[in-house]
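Just scan my protein:

——
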Amino acid sequence: MIRAIITTGEDDAARLVAAMLSDTPVIDGLKSLTDGIGGREK
């Protein structure tokens, strides 16, 4: 039973880290906005 709780906690932490490191729509929008203002758009 304790092993199941530990495993679940590890899975949750791994999913959280993966979500934080991946690109999100907010990050994509921020990149577009800063590239447009900064003149890096082609």
About this structure: Residues 2-38 form one domain. The radius of gyration is 18 Å.
